[in-house]
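Pasting two entries for a bug report.
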Amino acid sequence: MITRRLTHYLLTLTFCLGLGGCASWFSTDEPDPEVHLVKVEVVRAKLMEQKFVLHFRIDNRRDSELTVRGLEYRIHLADILLAEGEHEHWITVGPKASRFYKVPIRTNLWPKVRDLVKQLKSPEQAIPYRLEGEMETGLFIAHYVHLTRNGVIIPADLIPEQPR
């Protein structure tokens, strides 16, 4: 009985140590991809529900293909959380290439409308935004790329000119 337990323990230990060695086979020193929010498309805007499509550009800086499994995101405008969620959609980005990744979102900005109106009072004034999240990559073993992007938007640039 003791011999059986010892054998089981040694086999388990050997198996765990072997897996640790295998994990190093898949680790890489290649650079993480760059992710940019390039466009926010308004699909529908009603009082209690707004639908948007976030257009991300993924730049693969590696010499090999990049498999993207999904994206978890949080978008802030000034200190207001506009949207958060996750989108699971697999795409492959070629080596040293870029590809667009569209994320449909649905939100309700009604509880935040007072704060948004304050931000939009002067359309020429820049408003800071922040994108945070994680992109899940990898074909067999998941690798998480942390995203943090800061910038500003000028509301006047987003308002189309009215014909006179």
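Entry 2 (this is the one that rendered wrong in the viewer):
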Amino acid sequence: MKFIKDLLFFEIQTTGLEPDKDYIIQLSALLLDKDNLLEKGNYNCHVRVSFLDGVIRDHSQKLHIEFDQLKKSPKIYDAVKQFRQKFEPDLLLCTHNINNLLFLRAAFKRSSIKFDYDPHVLELWTLGYIYTLNYGLRKMPTFSTFLDHFRLAQQRPWDSMEKVRLEAEVFRKIIKEA
């Protein structure tokens, strides 16, 4: 199956679940070619959201990275700016749920960077739900359900780069069977 635009899968780790008050602490993305779904590029950035050592220490534990590494990480403005420079807006954004998109939009807004990506988004959860109905899976289409179904393993559940790679692989497998 060929797509009209290249697909940009993205995944985040956050400080909580609410985009208007919580923050992205890791932003990862994987660009797939529209013709063959092979990787064309990627981006991975840990984000420092505070200058307070206690907050940084909490986030470094959540991300399973060294305190000093996170302390040297860019603030959200620089992370979003790098993301936008790397990935032009003429892409189809893809993610496992719509809340990730809300977080990304909030990060762009906080950074005063225009969010001019296509408003159409491929949501893996919705695609997965349709897949489960058509293929008789009797489980909710969670990320874990698809990892089990396609015999994929997640080694670092806190790492959004690993997760975005696995999401892209789940997507490829669903498309291959469709």
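Dev reply: Rendering is fixed now. As a check, the viewer should reflect this: The chain has a mean pLDDT of 94.
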